């Protein structure tokens, strides 16, 4: 986009501060619903950063796919698994948190070292601006044709896999009695299969 | 007298690195399985920001970074769909979303 340099700078600062604070909120907020909505804000700000980088097509794809589909999917998942249970206390949780903060800060130092000391080949070739959309289309249908087609197969596989994993088992006959199954019974609360080893949660009430 | 220059490439890389590290921390420390998936989305977005920055600054005429970013967005959408389906299936079997209780394969 052809913005003045100072405008670009201010936009970059605002968007990156929004992204980083929002990401911290996604990770740190206790309520997962707030996290999901903040994730939507982070993804929108990322689309703004893409616009600053002359990538209007990817910004539109980001908004359509991430904000429109993935974030809504995450919200639906939160709604479906909405169980407000107090988390069981754990040993050495604070120690684990501090250790992982150390590991992440080390990783950050490494990445910053690489980003700031590498002699990048700047300035590169001049940006083609809004003609990037045409160039992306050319890439998709010439030298990246095979990955483009494989991506569609991947999406089909993901769709089938998600349906198979998430559907309820609809049986024509009851496995135990052999009678035709009452479909309404399939909606009843099932005994959790594997939670019997937890001594604190009795899975089956004794008769 | 300072002249305002364009936003340097390194600024985008620094933002992406910080976003990636926040995602890694959330991935390690979240106890809600949905939040783990959200952290993975954050990490994928950080990688995408790197791709776009390199594509704009170092590869301005052949925007290959944008092509890769579109592929990453595709794979991320597939990953989110399958991941949330696995999460639903886990929730039906274990009746919890606490990551610390998914320990069947623990050594």
From TrEMBL, chain A:
Keywords associated with the record: Cell membrane, Membrane, NAD, Quinone, Transmembrane, Transmembrane helix, Ubiquinone
Protein name according to UniProt: NADH-quinone oxidoreductase subunit J
PANTHER family, A to Z: NADH-UBIQUINONE OXIDOREDUCTASE CHAIN 6
Enzyme class: translocase
EC number: 7.1.1.-
Catalytic activity field: a plastoquinone + NADH + (n+1) H(+)(in) = a plastoquinol + NAD(+) + n H(+)(out); a plastoquinone + NADPH + (n+1) H(+)(in) = a plastoquinol + NADP(+) + n H(+)(out)
Function description: NDH-1 shuttles electrons from NADH, via FMN and iron-sulfur (Fe-S) centers, to quinones in the respiratory chain. Couples the redox reaction to proton translocation (for every two electrons transferred, four hydrogen ions are translocated across the cytoplasmic membrane), and thus conserves the redox energy in a proton gradient.
Domain of life of the source: Bacteria
Similarity comment: family membership: Belongs to the complex I subunit 6 family.
Bilayer topology: Multi-pass membrane protein
Localisation per UniProt entry: Cell membrane
Short name of one Pfam family: Oxidored_q3
Spans traversing the lipid bilayer: 6-29, 36-53, 59-81, 93-116, 144-166
GO cellular component terms attached to this protein's record: plasma membrane; transmembrane transporter complex
TrEMBL record, chain B:
Membrane topology: Multi-pass membrane protein
Recorded GO MF terms: oxidoreductase activity, acting on NAD(P)H, quinone or similar compound as acceptor; quinone binding
Gene3D superfamilies for the chain: 1.10.287.3510
E.C. designation(s): 7.1.1.-
Regions that span the bilayer: 12-29, 36-55, 67-91
Top-level taxon of origin: Bacteria
Compartment(s) of residence: Cellular thylakoid membrane; Membrane
InterPro entries given in the database record: NADH_UbQ_OxRdtase_chain4L/K, NUOK/Mnh_C1-like
Keywords: Membrane, NAD, NADP, Plastoquinone, Quinone, Thylakoid, Translocase, Transmembrane, Transmembrane helix, Transport
Catalysed reactions, as listed in the record: a plastoquinone + NADH + (n+1) H(+)(in) = a plastoquinol + NAD(+) + n H(+)(out); a plastoquinone + NADPH + (n+1) H(+)(in) = a plastoquinol + NADP(+) + n H(+)(out)
CC per GO annotation: NADH dehydrogenase complex; plasma membrane-derived thylakoid membrane
One of the protein's GO biological processes: ATP synthesis coupled electron transport
EC class: translocase
Family statement drawn from the similarity comment of this UniProt entry: Belongs to the complex I subunit 4L family.
Subunit record text: NDH-1 can be composed of about 15 different subunits; different subcomplexes with different compositions have been identified which probably have different functions.
UniProt xrefs under NCBIfam families: PRK05715.1-2, PRK05715.1-3, PRK05715.1-4, PRK05715.1-5
Purpose of the protein: NDH-1 shuttles electrons from an unknown electron donor, via FMN and iron-sulfur (Fe-S) centers, to quinones in the respiratory and/or the photosynthetic chain. The immediate electron acceptor for the enzyme in this species is believed to be plastoquinone. Couples the redox reaction to proton translocation, and thus conserves the redox energy in a proton gradient. Cyanobacterial NDH-1 also plays a role in inorganic carbon-concentration.
Protein name per its UniProtKB record: NAD(P)H-quinone oxidoreductase subunit 4L
Organism of provenance: Candidatus Synechococcus spongiarum LMB bulk15M
Gene name of this polypeptide: ndhE
